[in-house]
Amino acid sequence: MASAGRQRTRKGLALLLPLLVLLAAPLVMASEARADFRVCNATQNLVGVGIGYRAKSGWITEGWWHIEGSTCKTLIEGPLSSRFYYLYAEDAERGGRWDGPISMCVAEKEFKIAGVTDCVARGFQRAGFQEYDTGEQASWMVQLTEQPTTEGAPATPASNGQNSQ
């Protein structure tokens, strides 16, 4: 009799397991949703991108991400920890740029720079970054379009940062 009871328990568990998997699937899928800061290059040209943000240790600027035409790259992986992010990008082929009024430091080659003051005195260049207010969303996407400027005036992407859910 005891073995018959064990068999019924196993059958019950075997029938219950697929139901539990179906109920748990949405929870697993929700936890796999990506939260990050992405930049999409809607041009046909290679673009170099730098980002600035406020960390616990102070201001940080990082670059260069090279984004091929018609592709996207994740600059910050995981849920965003700041409300404001700053972006500067250059068209590597045509020489235009997507910039803004916020002055931060960049370097000629790959960089991660602490602080945004005395750029030139510290051996860096100064660049104007565009501010993006993420509204404290967990993820954000900026799309760069065919509107870079060549004379340094601010260029606003056709699609400012959008919540990418």
UniProtKB/TrEMBL annotation:
The keyword Signal applies. Residues 1-30 form the signal peptide. Residues 145-165 are annotated as: Disordered. InterPro entries: DUF1036. It comes from the Bacteria. It holds the Pfam family DUF1036. Keywords: Signal. This is DUF1036 domain-containing protein. It comes from Mesorhizobium hungaricum.
